[in-house]
Amino acid sequence: MRVEEIRRWVEGQRAAAEASQAADEAAPVEPRVAWAQALSLIALIGRSIGWPVPPDEVRRRGDEQAASAWSRLRAVYGKRQ
Length: 81
Known about the structure:
single chain
């Protein structure tokens, strides 16, 4: 990456953080509106990829790798207790 690309990326991150903070400081969403938005997103997911949502294979593999790593750590360091 060039320095200019990194600078643009950093500025984009700053702008996103400022926009997020401004949204957090804005008036809260009414519960009725929040529920309607959530149900709309659920319906969109159902139409797009089906319901129930299929498992995320990347997350599943990551979970398996983490469980394996913890198992190895417990096998080595758990015996010292």
